[in-house]
Amino acid sequence: MSDALDILDQVDKWKASGKGVAVATVITTWGSSPRPVGSQLAVDDSGAMVGSVSGGCIEGAVVTEALASIADGKPRLLDFGVTDEQAWDVGLACGGKVQVFVEKVS
């Protein structure tokens, strides 16, 4: 089974058990980025996750925003990169840019 199918399967299981779920998707990359466009990370309301949007360097920040999206139902557009001071805070010092869209799964 592909990564995308594994992620969607887990999302279905979480939703079936009554959990809140959000999915984060890499929508833009530039320069050096750890994961390609289309990479996904799913998060449930307890913070469990499956998939990856960064190989680890920004995932903590993405999980935090996914949990907030589950709580308030609002999508988020996250930017991490060389022009973003947050890049150093989350470990994206590789000189690239990553844009991630996060939304609650209804």
List keywords for this structure.
106 residues, 31% helix
Could you explain the architecture of this structure?
- The chain is α+β, with helices and mostly antiparallel strands and 106 residues long.
- The protein has one domain.
- The radius of gyration is 13 Å and the shape is globular.
- The protein has three helices and five strands; from the N terminus they run αβββαβαβ.
- It has helices at 3-16, 59-72, 86-90; strands at residues 21-30, 40-44, 49-51, 76-81, 97-104.
- The model has no long low-confidence stretch (mean pLDDT 87).
- The chain starts with a helix and ends with a strand.
> Main beta sheet: strand number and arrangement?
5 strands, antiparallel
Distance between the termini: 24 Å
Number of helices: 3
Sketch the topology as an H/E string, one letter per element: HEEEHEHE
**What is the C-alpha radius of gyration, as a whole number of Å?**
13 Å
